[in-house]
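User: Design a sequence. Structure:
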């Protein structure tokens, strides 16, 4: 038996998380232009000490509030990456996110480090012209949000 059994995630399970700050649990519309799975986490890797989602965002031509304000007891990194290989900095979309009430407008590939206890969101789209990838990296094995 290999020392690495249980470390490889090649099943990529669909997200099975109660996202209390988004979708039906937050009285919000589930965005029709998103889909995703657990990239790293305890669904497949029980010893994992982190949780990471992989979410694809497809074109959408109207404003959409995706995630409501919340806070975590752990650090989190939000990552968004454009899909144009000739201009990888261009996100092909415009997002907004609030960090402790301060709004940021995002239209380039990048990330935000959010320390434990920092209120963040709402998060949403002004528009999406081209598909891009969104990751949420939780420095905890289980995603948990307090609204």
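Assistant: Done.
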């Amino acid at each position: 038996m290999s020392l690495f059994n249980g470390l490889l995630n090649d099943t990529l399970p669909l997200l099975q998380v109660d996202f209390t700050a988004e979708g039906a649990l937050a009285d919000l519309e589930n965005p029709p232009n998103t889909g995703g799975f657990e990239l790293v986490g305890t669904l497949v890797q029980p010893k994992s000490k982190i949780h990471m989602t992989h979410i694809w965002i497809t074109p959408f031509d109207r404003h959409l509030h995706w995630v409501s304000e919340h806070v975590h007891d752990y650090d989190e990194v939000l990552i968004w990456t454009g899909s144009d290989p000739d201009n990888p900095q261009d996100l092909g979309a415009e997002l907004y996110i609030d960090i402790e009430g301060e709004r940021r407008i995002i239209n380039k590939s990048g990330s935000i480090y959010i320390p434990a206890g920092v209120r963040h969101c709402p998060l949403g789209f002004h528009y999406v012209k081209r598909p891009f990838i969104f990751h949420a990296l939780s420095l905890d094995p289980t995603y948990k949000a307090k609204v």
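The chain has a mean pLDDT of 87. The longest strand covers residues 90-99.
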